[in-house]
Amino acid sequence: MTKKTAEGVSRVTGVAHLILTSLADGEKHGYALTQDVMQFSGIRIAPGSLYEALARLEGQGLIEPITSTDRRRPYRLTAAGAAVLDEFLSAQEQLASEGRRRLCASWRFS
Amino acid sequence: MAFLVSREHLETGSATTRRAQGYLRWYPQAWRECYGEEFVAHLEAELLERPVSVLRTVDIVGHGFLARLSFQRGLRVAVWATTAFVLVAAVAVGAIVLTQYWAPVSITSGAGGVSGVGLLARPNQINDVALNFSTRSHASVRIMSIAVLPLRGFRVPEVVGVAFAPHASELINARGWPVRLPKGVTPRAEGDTPLAPAIGATVNLARTNVLWLGLRVPTLHHAYAVDGLRVTYERRGVSHTMTINQSTAPDVICANSSSSGQLPTWCAQEITAAGAIASLSAAGNPAQPSPATVARFVAQLALSEAQATGHRAPTIGDVRRLAARFFPVTHGDAIQSVTGLVNAGKPEWRFVIRGSSSTSTSVHCTNRGRVTAGGGIIAIAVVTCPSQR
């Protein structure tokens, strides 16, 4: 993992990586984001936490707002955001793979 | 902040919108300009889905405050300054409280004792001496030990018992040991009630308190003195020491075989000497005074003793004996001679006392003190002679 990528991953906290994951399959406004996150993870993001994370991710250049005539402004993933999410998920996959291997070896889980 | 009036907006209802706008007020103006519209729209949908949620309210209020800190520098400074002040104040108060919590008891020793000064006692008799002290702290302490503070030149009596009483000042007790207070004397010890032993006991201090000592003086024709007490006690697990000092009037007990209540001359002389020794210490003199100071002091004692025994002149031997008893280190070598004479019909003695330098000498005299008809104690001072040859 390069230093630049490590910095990007370290900047992504719990709520933020849920947002990036949700935006990976298309742009969404805030309410749709929370509904989508609830559906795939079971985690409910409260409004205050959501908009604090959106503001931070926008400041880091990982997401960007889309101009809309609706009051509810949608957001989409940027290239930088996609790269950060990719590195993060790779690290999670590596961790999951190693954990599964050790679990099967020591605890006889299948 | 402008709102686009959509059908969806109309369908959510004004009450929900008002609630959403109410939540928005927790955020600063600058933040509302960036995210206000979408935030309200989001909240309207959430409030329809879940009208009540304490966690959501806490989340919005908390992040609103954090947003204010982020956007408003003045508020940020004020919050940090207030937090720092509160922390410093809490630490200071905590330190003060903890310090006081384990602090030793602050006491004021009693202004001299009235009980036990100039007692006569037989060696097989136990006498009581009372020392009183005052404190503003109503603390509970556990007395671990006591030690009698000796008086220079006097023997230390044997302590056979210690008793404590709060709310009591010193009293003359004629009932021996253990101490029993007369009926109605204090609120805590009414009636013929023996006091509890103090060593190892937890006592509750009051404004005035008394420690009674049961003392024995084993050797006949000797004087014993109590200059004060050093008390070791525990308070909240921390050990402390307090000194109850009665140096202005040390208690003297003379071991005497006579059952007569009248003090013999030698005992009266011992009481005088005890008072003089205590005054010397109270005057701030060092533990080992200079030879000149010792000489003047023992000259005073010798004069007092001579007057008590009938105006005879003190001899150099008397002086040296007193010096060896009270100042065994410095002795009375500074007094080179004692001369008795009569001046205008009054007895006068002159001491040649070596000065602080071994090469110089100075002559000191008594003043022309008053002698009572019965040869009683006279106020005498050692002064520089008016003329020297």
Question: Can you walk me through this structure?
Answer:
The complex is a heterodimer of chains A (110) and B (389). With 110 residues, chain A is mainly alpha-helical. Chain A has a single domain (3-107), classed as Orthogonal Bundle (Arc Repressor Mutant, subunit A), CATH 1.10.10. Chain A is built from five helices and two strands, in the order H-H-H-H-E-E-H. A two-stranded antiparallel ribbon of chain A has the order 1-2. In chain A, helix 1 (3-11) crosses helix 5 (79-107) and helix 2 packs across helix 3. The model of chain A is unreliable at 1-10 (pLDDT under 50). Chain B is of the alpha+beta class and 389 residues long. Chain B folds into three domains: 7-101, no CATH class; 107-255, Immunoglobulin-like (Sandwich); 285-384, no CATH class. Chain B has eight helices and 17 strands. Chain B has helices at 7-12, 14-24, 29-49, 54-71, 73-101, 265-282, 291-308, 316-326, and strands spanning 107-109, 119-121, 126-135, 140-149, 158-166, 180-181, 193-194, 202-204, 208-216, 223-226, 228-235, 238-245, 251-255, 335-343, 346-354, 361-366, 382-384. In chain B, the strands form five sheets. In chain B, strands 1-3-9-5 form a four-stranded antiparallel beta sheet, with no helix packed on it. A four-stranded antiparallel beta sheet of chain B has the order 8-4-11-12, with no helix packed on it. Chains A and B meet through helix 3 and helix 4 of A and helix 3 and helix 4 of B.
**Strand order of the main beta sheet of chain B, please?**
1-3-9-5
Total helices of chain A: the number is 5
CATH superfamily of chain A: Winged helix-like DNA-binding domain superfamily/Winged helix DNA-binding domain
The first-level CATH class name of chain A: Mainly Alpha
Structural class of chain B: alpha+beta
Based on the structure given, which CATH architecture of the largest domain in chain B is correct? Answer: Sandwich
How many domains of chain A? The number is 1
Report the order of strands and helices of chain B: HHHHHEEEEEEEEEEEEEHHHEEEE
Low-confidence stretches of chain B: 1-6, 112-116, 186-193
Overall 3D geometry of chain B?
A: elongated
In the CATH scheme, the class of the largest domain in chain B would be: Mainly Beta
Spatial extent as radius of gyration of chain A? 16 Å
Based on secondary structure, the structural category of chain A is: mainly alpha
Q: What gyration radius of chain B follows from the Cα positions, in whole Å? A: 40 Å
